[in-house]
């Protein structure tokens, strides 16, 4: 009997060791089933009650507070201060609304507050009454941490992604497109707004558009009407004439938000704006340069192959010359990270491209990767999750990817990234950049 028991214990422990190993390696990872679309019971609110509160950066030391009320007479004022219940400042904003087929939106308020102290908790009230919210603004110096998740939607997996992000320490949320998956059904924009409010009212959410924001009806309704009305970003503050592309600064990082679904050829407004924006960046003050847009340029998944090619042909030389360090994209519902890459090949002076379109939408994951992993592709996996980019100082940043299935602190992929500036690439390219910027 005794030897058998020993053998049994040995087999049990071996199984445990093997199981631990299986969950730790990406290629053997067992993928979970999809989760249900969330149901939101209709809960009528007091007509001035602020709904769907979210904040976004609005130029140096300023924050835009956005919320919706059922009542059209609710004022667009925000009272705020640095102690709970004590509001020693007040700001007046603007409002908008839109109609879409039979749907009429509530009153959408946009109120910019500031100047604000950096890295400070503020308490605020929307419309001068109702519940108190609070947020922490970003620091003015490194370190600074960005949470990144694209293609969110509103399913059980979205909830899980948001829950994970809520448990990490971060300063700004960045979303490379595909927010609500409303897809013409406008009520879904409202339920999405309510779903993200706990996070989006506490940290700035900086978003760019995806295909699910378009909602155009040929000859009848132009694209992005709901998105532009609800998710106003600091485009005016960054010299852009469109909410579909803009830039912002956090600590020593300059972040460029581009539009995959608006014109991007070299005669387009977006391209001219991009050139002007890059020309303004002082790399002494902003050693980190990041770019976000929806459709990835480097993608070895079978899904959405080639969709980013035209934009890449137009804009990659400019981003390369400018020395963009990291590009974050969505659209493909999976995770993939590249080497530094340019023009289809690994290049020590190119950008690290990361596809992070695995926030949790109802369409599910993009399971099929091309059989042959390209030489530039370092890590790829179809699982829901989010990323964290912690910029430690002017030369080093730490990127990590967190699966929803693991505990938040578990990092399934991670890498240290150093700036192109510190490797001498920027100096090398300055001539090329000048040529593009001063060209026609
Ligand atoms: C765990 O997996 C790695 C790589 O797949 C392998 O090299 C290693 O031997 C495994 N360890 C155990 C304890 O099975
Ligand atoms: C930046 O951070 C990295 C990683 O922690 C460290 O090795 C490096 O010395 C730091 N550089 C400076 C200039 O502080
Ligand atoms: Fe998409």
Automatic annotation (TrEMBL):
Residues 351-407 form the Purple acid phosphatase C-terminal domain. It holds the Pfam family Metallophos_C. It catalyses: a phosphate monoester + H2O = an alcohol + phosphate. Its EC number is 3.1.3.2. Residues 145-335 form the Calcineurin-like phosphoesterase domain. GO terms for molecular function: acid phosphatase activity. Keywords: Glycoprotein, Hydrolase, Signal, Zinc. CDD domains: MPP_PAPs (cd00839). It is an enzyme of class 3 (hydrolase). Its cofactor is Fe cation; Zn(2+). Residues 1-19 form the signal peptide. InterPro entries: Calcineurin-like_PHP, Metallo-depent_PP-like, MPP_PAP, PAPs-like, PAPs_C, PAPs_N, Purple_acid_Pase-like_N. Residues 50-136 form the Purple acid phosphatase N-terminal domain. Belongs to the metallophosphoesterase superfamily. Purple acid phosphatase family. This is Purple acid phosphatase. The lineage of its organism: Eukaryota, Viridiplantae, Streptophyta, Embryophyta, Tracheophyta.
